[in-house]
Design a protein that fits this description.
The structure is a single chain. By secondary structure, this protein is of the alpha+beta class. It has helices spanning 7-21, 37-42, 65-73, 100-107, 116-121, 167-179, 195-213, 317-329, 381-390, 416-425, and strands at residues 78-83, 86-91, 94-95, 132-138, 145-147, 150-159, 183-184, 225-227, 232-234, 238-239, 256-257, 276-284, 290-295, 307-310, 333-344, 349-358, 375-380, 392-393, 410-411.
């Protein structure tokens, strides 16, 4: 038997699997070397792929247009641009960041020259405004922009998808970028990026997707306006586009009042980005010797993973774990412990990783409830450890050298499922330190 009892040993083999498959290394958790009462009791924090951003979001500065104007044009500022949610890159593992001069033909000289109150008052729904996001400051760059007590290189994201009144400018920008040998990475999931770039990409993609999905007010159906650095949308009370007897609206003319809208009353006067909580769980048998795994019909042969599902309204995470596991597999759970979380920007999930243990007598697998799974089974710890060593990959990709056809396959290390399985195979449920 391989010496898998120590979690550090298992992490060493997991790191080797990352190297062999070309999977990027995971981000470092915050203060990984700091000793504390919490880390001694619960183990070191686990950081998953798409987390670990190097940026300070300084969310309280998103309404400060003086700051945003200065950040937009600073020589250290970087722009990550997307076309149909596909990021600009040199290759699948290298994002390409632009400067203000590159995007100026699309965004104009200064989209933050007016404050939010002025922009709302002059709103005209027939004019397409390029979707621009302020992502944050990289405070490691001491040559970056200084504003009050904050210093760092600003980061923005920009949607260059051709649409509306900016279609021509966007197409010209795209053609210019492609002529420089750059490309927009196609494919739903980008998992070859270095960890910190992946976190920046995830933040940008999730917010751009949310803005694109919510161009209209959910209450009254009227077009909305992006505000707060791209992280909120508001339903303006007036619209210059609805002026009668004018062509395009005249400056100084009173705009048309829009229908009454509940979002303009009380404290719920803006639309906030959506995040969908999703549980994903490594289920351990009552004797701690086996792990529950399942597979969907569309997956490659021998490929399994942990079970997952959405948290429903008025449901705790622990309740969602027990419900989803029973619905999909018939297995009944007792104790549920949260292990770690993972942002998943497809489109806006927060994967809440848990480890749970089956109650005695509750291990029978029944697939007749929810038909989501093609198969579910119990795998012993040695089988899981061997799969973590040589059998991990993204869906449809090859396993590592040493994998034997017909053996168990598991998700790559960039998936939180891999980290949950690594934890239980390394002694999370036992007397040893938990993580």
């Amino acid at each position: 038997m391989l010496p898998w009892s120590a979690p550090s040993e298992l992490r060493k083999y997991s790191a080797a699997a990352h190297k062999m498959t070309g999977i990027p290394a995971l981000p470092e958790p915050a203060h990984p070397d700091l000793d504390s009462m919490l880390s001694r009791k619960f183990g070191k924090e686990v950081a998953n792929y798409f987390s670990g951003s190097p940026l300070n979001r300084v969310s309280f500065l998103r309404t400060d247009h003086t700051f945003l104007s200065a950040a937009l044009k600073h020589p250290t500022t970087s722009f990550l641009v997307f076309n149909n949610l596909n990021p600009l890159a040199k290759d699948p593992s290298t994002l390409e960041y632009l400067r203000f001069a590159d995007v100026q033909p699309l965004v104009g000289d200064d989209p933050y020259s007016k404050n939010e109150e002025q922009l709302v008052a002059e709103y005209k729904s027939t004019i397409t405004i390029p979707q621009l996001l302020f992502l944050g400051l990289d405070e490691r760059n001491k040559q970056g922009l200084t504003h009050a007590i904050y210093t760092g290189a600003p980061y923005f994201a920009l949607d260059v998808t051709p649409k509306g009144t900016i279609a021509s400018q966007a197409e010209s920008l795209i053609q210019n970028l492609q002529s420089r040998g750059l490309k927009f990475l196609e494919g739903r999931i980008q998992a070859a990026l270095p960890a910190q770039d992946a976190a920046i990409y995830a933040q940008a993609r999730a917010l751009l997707d949310w803005n694109a999905r919510n161009p209209y007010c959910a209450q009254c159906g009227q077009p909305t306006l992006s505000i707060n650095g791209g992280t909120k949308r508001t339903c303006p009370p007036k619209d210059m586009a609805n002026l009668k007897g004018t062509i395009g609206g005249n400056v100084g003319t009173e705009p048309t009042e829009r229908p009454d809208c509940a979002t303009r009353k009380g404290i719920s006067n803006v639309c906030f980005p959506r995040t969908d909580p999703t549980i994903i769980v490594a289920v351990v048998s009552s004797d701690s010797k086996r792990v529950l795994i399942g597979r969907q019909k569309r997956w490659p042969p021998y490929w399994y993973s942990t079970l997952a599902g959405f948290v429903e309204p008025a449901e705790s995470v622990e309740e969602a774990v027990r419900r989803e596991v029973w619905e999909e597999s018939g297995v009944k759970l007792g104790r549920v412990v949260i292990h770690s979380t993972q942002p998943w920007p497809y489109p806006a999930n927060l994967m809440i990783g848990a480890i749970a243990q089956c109650i005695p007598g509750g291990e029978e697998i029944v697939l007749k409830h929810d038909p989501e799974l093609e198969d579910a089974r119990w795998a012993d710890m040695d089988e899981v450890r061997e799969a973590l060593r040589v059998g991990t990959s993204a869906l449809g990709e090859s396993a590592q050298e040493g994998y034997k056809e017909g053996n168990l396959r598991l998700p790559a290390g960039t998936a939180i499922a891999n980290q949950l399985l690594t934890a239980v195979a390394g002694g999370f449920v036992g007397e040893a330190p938990k993580i």
